[in-house]
Amino acid sequence: MIAKLADISNYIDVERYPLHDRSGGRYKELVERARSDLEIDGMFNLDGFLKTEACKHAVKEIAPTMQHQSFEHRRFHNLYFLDGIDGLSPDHPALQKVETVNHTVCADQMTDSVVLAVYEWQPLLHFLADVMQKPELYLMDDHMARANVMAYRDSEALNWHFDRSEFTTTLLLQSPDVGGDFEYRTNLRSDDDPNYDGVARLLQGSDGEKKTLVVEPGTLNVFRGKNTAHRVTPVEGDRERIIAVFSYYEFPGKVFSAKERIGFYGRPE
Fold it and tell me: Residues near 115 by Cβ (< 8 Å), separated by ≥ 6?
């Protein structure tokens, strides 16, 4: 799917976010603002990036598949998604297990959707590359993993973890009535210092530097979570928290292995 400006403007607020005008002054201002926010907070947000009606339409498009064919991803894990860490006792509080539960719809289950149109919009890739100061970014080639939509239902949550990738791009489509807040602890560790005691304090609820971000549907969030621990608090009530997750890479041809697909989606292809 190749989205043209006339089509994508039905979904994205291109007047507020003219990502298609790469040489324009407003575009350059957006890049500089995003870079600054990324440096200070480890993330940036484009609120109202997806129009309100587009959010509702995207949720409606995916609803039948989400209800009847989504994969329930339920796992107990530590922040590192590892069985153990060399030199760290298995009962160290930094290795405390938490539970994550969500329901996932894959890219191959939502062809010709609003979500995929936004994911594949080339000006968005160019913008992200410019903000990250990378020569280029590429769509993921994996027909399942390239873009996912995840729903969190009553009592479900994305629990504390560090990301494996350099950055994560998400687009909130629907907020729950209660809960589903994004909590994070900036630079809890570094490449030189794993700060296991600090991780333990976070898990015990005694880290005073934890922050909470509450965003509205339509917000595009780009987040560096490799060294910043983060989670989504449990959802309460019947209204699901629904969010799209976009996967971009610095090199073309990226795909998941069959084992990774089974782990994330319950099927190899």
Answer: 58, 61, 62, 147, 149, 171, 173, 244
C-beta of residue 196 within 8 angstroms of C-beta of residue 145: no
**Which residue in 217, 228, 87 sits closest to 163, CA to CA?**
228
* Site of tokens 């699901």: 240
- Spatial distance between the Cα atoms of 171 and 254, rounded to a whole number of angstroms: 21
Helix (H, G, I), strand (E, B) or coil at 162: coil
- pTM of the predicted structure, to 2 decimals: 0.92
Q: Token match 């780009």: residue? A: 222
- Residue 100, beta-bridge partner list: 75
CB atoms within 10 A of CB 267: 11
Pairing of strands 235-236, 220-223: unpaired
pLDDT in tens, 157-215: 999 999 888 899 999 999 999 999 999 999 999 999 999 999 999 999 999 999 999 89
